[in-house]
Every structure is written in structure tokens, then in C-alpha cells.
Design a protein that fits this description.
Order of helices and strands: HEHHEHEHEHEHHHHHHHH
Largest sheet: 5 strands, parallel
Strand content: 5-15%
Helix content: 40-55%
Radius of gyration: 22 Å
Protein name: DNA-directed DNA polymerase
Structural class: alpha/beta
Keywords: DNA-directed DNA polymerase, Nucleotidyltransferase, Transferase
CATH architecture of the largest domain: 3-Layer(aba) Sandwich
Shape: globular
Number of strands: 5
InterPro entries: DNA_Rep/Repair_Clamp_Loader, P-loop_NTPase
Distance between the termini: 54 Å
CATH topology of the largest domain: Rossmann fold
GO molecular function: DNA-directed DNA polymerase activity
CATH class of the largest domain: Alpha Beta
Number of helices: 14
GO cellular component, one term: DNA polymerase III complex
């Protein structure tokens, strides 16, 4: 029986109808990253803290749970390099990990408190201390005690420091698998104590393969729709899923047309639409579309003078900075949307 998809109790970053990473048996496109773990396990030199970096939606959390299942099931331990980290979905450990009920596994993440209506915006120090209490106890079976952090950018300073203390002086047979979408933003002291493993964006064919394996309604789209979503996704399954939505694709088409021939009345109307709080996903799509346009322009103009390329790169950085500041300080989005088109026009 395949694992059940996420239900109404969605966790941060989840998509309704999709299997959660902790229950996902397949890992596509990250063979090199898995090989790094297999070789470390086979050599008996598994570093106690790993920083799994890369864009959202490329399999970082899926890999972390895959490693955890393998070690908790003690499959291949001490017997040379294991051929795979896969554990059968029906294995008791696989079921425990899927339910987050294994006594030697803890997941540090944003989580709705009992009775609360909203999910906190950060991983609090209280949540970190509760989760990391696992390492103050004796392992249930003398095996590994494992902590998965998903994701590190959501740690606040106090919770990051609580994690750091354990990484600096890890108990025996402990393992920290830290998922990060932007490793450069983490505390340098955390980065320096981790083995860093960069996962690559997936290829278009790999993204299509993942989408086709998700079942309905995702795999029911025509092949050309799946192919276009994969092409625009920049190797991220999470982004490709969003691009299967007709409204999202329509927005991409609209923005690409406005970038080619700006119509400022339509740009102003677009800014009004995307300023709504129920337009979060479309707003992110707009940012992604413009950044993808700038990246493509840089690639297309590689033979032009460096100053022209620098103007495009600077525009990309200013757009990213404006978006970060708007998100951090809860600012009006309309100036950000207007700046997207102004920056692109000025950089031409």
C-alpha cells in the first residue's frame, strides 16, 4: 500500500495531496548525494552533522528521511558500502518514521501548538529544547539518535544556538541532518561544524518523472503541460507543481509579455492584484519569473561587455533585496512589483 498523502493537518511547505517527505520511498536525481552517505556509512566515518543545501523542492528532506530510515533500521551497518539506502515501505522503521513515532528520531520544524490557530513563523527555542532533549537520554536500542532540521532558515537565533551547542559537543552515535534552502544565511559556527552537501537542481526529464510518479491530479496533465512546468521550474519539483496551476501559468505568460513590452497601466493593475494577502503564491511566482528572465538575459548576452552583464546582475540583486525587506518588515508589495519591471527596463 502506498503511503497516504498529507491530509488536513498540513505542515509548513507541504502541498495538499502529496506524500510527505518522511513517507516518500523514492528519491530521484540525487544519486550523487546518496552515494556520499553510502560511502561514509560503509567506511564507518559518518560525520555527526550534515548540511543538506540547495533550492526548495529538489529532495533534501526526502534524502534526510531516507538516511534516517536506513540507519534506524540498521541496514548494511558495518558490512561495507550499502548498495542503497532504501528501506521497504512496509518495514516497521519506515512506518515509525512516517508517523514520527520512532523513539530515536526527532524532527525540528515549525509546528502548530495544541489549540493554536496558526503555525509560528520561526522555530522557537522552546521547541528546539523539547526536540533536542532526545540527546540527553540513552538511545532506545544503542543505535543512532537522529535529528532532522527542516528547515534551518526558520531557526531563530536562540534556537540556532541551542542546536549549535549539541553540534559542538555531540553525544556518541548522534546524527544531525540539517536541511537548508540558503546555507549562506546560517550561523557561520553551524556551517563550520557540518559536512556540507550541495544537492543539485533536477533536470527537466527528472522533474517530469517525479510529477508523473505523483499520481492524480498532478500526473493527469497533458505531457506538454508537464514539460513546460518542468522547463520553467529550474529543477524544483515544488516550483513545477505550482506551475501546473492554470492561474499560475497565465500569470507567467502575462509577466513575460509585460517584460517584453511594458504597459504601465497593466503593471499597476498587476501590482494591485498581487498585493492581496491571498495572492502569496502568485506573488512568489512573479518574483521567480522576473529572476528567471534576468538569468536568461545574462546567459544570452555572455558575449557583451561586462558592464552590460553587471547591470543585469545588479538588477537581480536589488529585486531580491527589495523582496526580502518587504517580507521581513511586512511592507506593501506594490512598490516591489513596480520595481521588477523598472529594474528590467533600466538594465536593458
Amino acid at each position: 500500500m502506498p503511503p497516504e498523502p498529507a491530509g488536513e493537518d498540513l505542515e509548513p511547505g507541504e502541498v495538499p495531496g502529496l506524500t510527505r517527505p518522511r513517507a516518500q520511498a523514492a528519491l530521484i536525481g540525487q544519486e550523487a548525494a546518496e552515494r556520499a552517505f553510502r560511502e561514509a556509512i560503509g567506511a564507518g566515518r559518518l560525520h555527526h552533522a550534515w548540511l543538506l543545501g540547495g533550492p526548495r523542492g529538489i529532495g533534501k528532506a526526502t534524502l534526510a528521511y531516507r538516511v534516517a530510515r536506513h540507519l534506524l533500521a540498521q541496514q548494511g551497518t558495518g558490512r561495507g558500502v550499502p548498495e542503497t539506502l532504501a528501506v521497504a515501505p512496509g518495514h516497521p522503521v519506515a512506518r515509525q518514521v512516517a508517523m514520527l513515532s520512532h523513539p530515536n528520531l526527532v524532527v525540528l520544524r515549525r509546528q502548530r501548538a495544541p489549540g493554536a490557530k496558526t503555525v509560528p513563523t520561526q522555530i522557537t527555542v522552546e521547541a528546539a529544547r523539547r526536540a533536542l532533549h532526545l540527546f540527553a537520554e540513552t538511545s532506545a536500542d544503542a543505535g543512532y539518535r537522529i535529528c532532522i532540521v527542516d528547515c534551518a532558515e526558520e531557526l531563530n537565533l536562540a534556537s540556532a544556538n541551542a542546536l549549535l551547542k549539541l553540534i559542538e559537543e555531540p553525544p556518541p552515535r548522534s546524527l544531525f541532518l540539517i536541511v537548508s534552502h540558503a546555507p549562506g544565511r546560517l550561523l557561520p559556527t553551524i556551517r563550520s561544524r557540518c559536512r556540507r552537501l550541495a544537492l543539485r537542481p533536477l533536470g527537466d526529464a527528472e522533474v517530469v518523472r517525479v510529477l508523473q510518479g505523483l499520481g492524480e491530479p498532478f500526473a493527469a496533465h497533458p505531457p506538454e503541460v508537464l514539460a513546460r512546468a518542468a522547463r520553467l521550474s529550474e529543477g524544483s519539483v515544488a516550483r513545477a507543481l505550482g506551475l501546473l496551476d492554470p492561474a499560475t501559468l497565465a500569470l507567467v505568460d502575462e509577466i513575460e509579455a509585460l517584460l517584453a513590452a511594458p504597459d504601465w497601466r497593466r503593471v499597476l493593475a498587476l501590482a494591485e492584484r498581487l498585493n492581496s494577502r491571498d495572492a502569496d503564491a502568485l506573488y512568489e511566482t512573479a518574483l521567480d519569473t522576473v529572476q528567471r528572465h534576468l538569468a536568461a538575459e545574462i546567459g544570452r548576452r555572455l558575449t557583451e561587455p561586462p558592464a552590460r552583464l553587471a547591470a543585469l546582475a545588479d538588477a537581480s540583486e536589488r529585486i531580491a533585496r527589495a523582496a526580502r525587506e518587504a517580507a521581513t518588515y511586512n511592507l506593501d508589495r506594490r512598490p516591489v512589483i513596480l520595481s521588477l519591471f523598472e529594474e528590467v527596463a533600466a538594465a536593458r
